Amino acid sequence: MTRASDAARLERERLSVVERRARARADAREVADGVDETVRLSRARGAGFETPTRRRGEREGVYRRLTGLDWLAKKGRLTAHQHGAGERYGAVFRKAAAEAAIGSTLDLAPGGGPAAGTPMRAVLGQAEARAQARAKLAFYRRRLGGQPDLVAACDLICGRELTPREAVATEREVARLEAVLQVALDLLAAGEG
Questions:
Q1: Strand pairing category for 64-66 and 48-50
Q2: In 3D, which of 53, 92, 86, 54 has the Cα closest to residue 71?
Q3: pLDDT tens digits for 124-133?
Q4: Is 82 exposed, middle or buried (0-12, 13-18, 19+ CB in 10 A)?
Q5: Whole-angstrom distance, CA of residue 188 vs CA of residue 126
């Protein structure tokens, strides 16, 4: 009797393991299908993605969303100097646009410390970094002659990291935006050299 009960218990455990594995595979397939659908919809809206590479026996690869600059560079539409100038512009744009990390003045504690909230020195450092970024962004925009089209192209593609198709509505506007961006990046790259 004990041998039969042991065999029955082992069979239940084996079936339980098989069931858990099957459930895990089904869950993984649902997640993969959801990711594929999200990527397809985002691509339809103009987003660029690096397609994951997958070797035999490996899990599915990871999609990486491409920034507008990376997408254009991957398509061979930007030189390395233009890409570098765009990355510098984008980093400054995002830092200048960053919201203050101060929730309320009650979060500040002179002298700081882990339990005291955000130290005043850190808050002032962040504010100073944002002010420097705003000044650098103004400098870059002056280098672009303050031209609204050049500034807007850099803000959309470099700063907000949109692809040209995400930034504008029609193919004609996409081609125009790419051309304007190339001129803007040439101006920015020429000033760096």
A1: antiparallel
A2: 86
A3: 888 898 999 9
A4: buried
A5: 26
Distances (CA, A) of 92 to 35, 156, 160, 161: 32, 13, 11, 13
Percent of the chain residues topping a pLDDT of 70: 82
* CB hemisphere CA count around 37 (13 angstroms): 6
Assigned token pair, 120: 């005043």
Domain range list for the chain: 2-66, 68-192
Query: Which residues have C-beta within 8 Å of that of residue 188, sequence separation ≥ 6?
Result: 85, 86, 88, 89, 140, 143, 144, 154
Cβ(143)–Cβ(85) below 8 Å: no
Report residue 143: phi and psi, to 5°. Answer: -60, -30
Smallest Cα–Cα separation from 136: which of 173, 188, 183? 188
CA distances from 153 to 33, 68, 90 (A): 35, 11, 11
End-to-end CA distance of the chain: 87
pTM of the model: 0.66
* Phi, psi (rounded to 5 degrees) for 27: -60, -45
